[in-house]
Amino acid sequence: MLNEILKKRNIPPLKNREEMLQILQQEIYGYIPPKPEGLSWEVQKDYIPNFCAGKATLDRVILSAQMPLGTFKFPIYVAIPTTDKKHPFFVNINFRDNIPDRYLPSEEIVDNGFAVISFCYKDVTDDNDDFTDGLAGVVYKDGKRDSTSAGKIAMWAWAAQRAMDFADTLDCLDGDFSIVCGHSRLGKTALLAAATDERFRFAFSNNSGCSGAAITRGKQGERVADICKNFPYWFCKNYYKYAQNEQKMPFDQHFLLSSIAPRYVYVASAQEDLWADPQSEFLCCVAASKAYEQLGHKGFVCDDILPHAPVCYHDGNIGYHLRGGSHYFSREDWKLFINYFNRFYKQN
Ligand code: GTR
Predict the structure, then answer these.
(1) Is 211 part of the annotated catalytic residue set?
(2) Is residue 35 domain-resident?
(3) Which of 219, 212, 172, 210 is nearest to 193 (CA)?
């Protein structure tokens, strides 16, 4: 049944990872800015003393990246459980710099044994069409970009990769169990960060929808024309040509999930989030499964029916859940992802 539904969507066949990454960057997000020529940092220890009743430490770390047109600095927040072991960890791209935040239940996460490195996306570059602000200012001369230059999503993804550079230097973190995550526009960002950086072992995208984890062709709610009208600066300029012209896209969003294979990718949907379209997010998992199977892994293991909340598919390297309720990064999403993660943690 699912194959029949997908066939009607008329999505292009998968290609090899390198080709898909080129297409995704060239046609949707723009090329991620270059790695910095140098990265240094300054640690502000115990930024919040007695964090989580003393179960963790919280430092604020200012990263300084040397970029083509100057040095760019932004803060990250590093919460590490005080237990003496190597911790799996999240790199969380957040809407705000609150710690904890309504989308980031730090104490529950720490209680489950994870460290969390988070940053506020607007500390990287503003969520608007100003390409002179923050990171954009040290990448583009006078804010001018061409058809394949990074949009803002690619810049936020770059920042997640710099947070990973810092994580790589910490002995108390278990580099084999890193997760990049975000919600909505930042869920799209988390997927792109993982697709283009193999150091992320897991990607967890919550309600990422259009131009994220949802198949575009035949989608309900937001389409390329909507997102390019409302948020053109999230993408490269090439993407605009597909507004009202999606059949011409030489890709669909299953390229994004497939570029993460054989690493783990988790797609979380919400029943009432029709703008994101849970069914199209689910179908994207189905369509990406082949990339995993070709690499000898379990891809997406699900029943041959469209999902109804509540449902979890946690058996394969692609995980999925559909919960009740609306567009939100809820504790339930975190809990279900952690259940999924724990099935694979330390197994290999
Ligand atoms: C919406 C946008 C979505 C989603 C969301 C968000 O307005 O249409 O694609 O990303 O914003 O990030 O909250």
Answers:
(1) no
(2) yes
(3) 212
What are the residues whose beta carbons fall under 8 Å from the beta carbon of 260, sequence distance 6 or more? Answer: 191, 194, 195, 203
Contacts of residue 50, defined as CB under 8 A and 6 or more positions apart, other chains included, come to none
Please give all residues whose beta carbon lies within 6 A of any atom in ligand 1, as ranges.
Answer: 184-185, 209-210, 222, 227
Do 302 and 313 form a contact (C-beta atoms < 8 A)? yes
The answer to whether position 312 is within a domain reads no
Assigned domain for 271 exists: yes
DSSP conformation class of 38:
E
Q: In terms of pTM, does the model score above 0.90?
A: yes
Domain count, the chain: 1
Q: For residue 311, tell me if it sits in a domain.
A: no
Label residues 130-149 b or e (16+ Cβ within 10 Å = b).
Answer: ebebbbbbbbbeeeebeebb
Which atom, in ligand 1's list, is nearest to the CA of 327?
A: 13
**Residue 310 pLDDT greater than 90, yes or no:** yes
From the CA of 42, how far away is ligand 1's center (Å)?
A: 33
Mark whether 184 is an active-site residue: yes
Query: Closest Cα to residue 116, out of 73, 169, 76?
Result: 76
Distance in Å, CA 10 to ligand 1 centroid: 25
CATH number assigned to the domain comprising residue 193: 3.40.50.1820
- Which residues is 266 bridged to in the sheet? 204, 319
CA distance 35 to 32: 9
pLDDT tens, position by position, 18-71: 999 999 999 999 999 999 999 999 999 999 999 999 999 999 999 999 998 999
Q: Report, in angstroms and rounded to the nearest whole number, the Rg of the chain calculated over CA atoms.
A: 19
Structure tokens at 97: 């710099």
> Cα separation of 255 and 16, whole Å?
9
Q: Among 120-124, 143-147, 291-295, 313-317, where is mean pLDDT lowest?
A: 143-147
Range of the domain at 108: 2-306+317-345
What residue's CA is closest to ligand 1, atom 10? Answer: 185
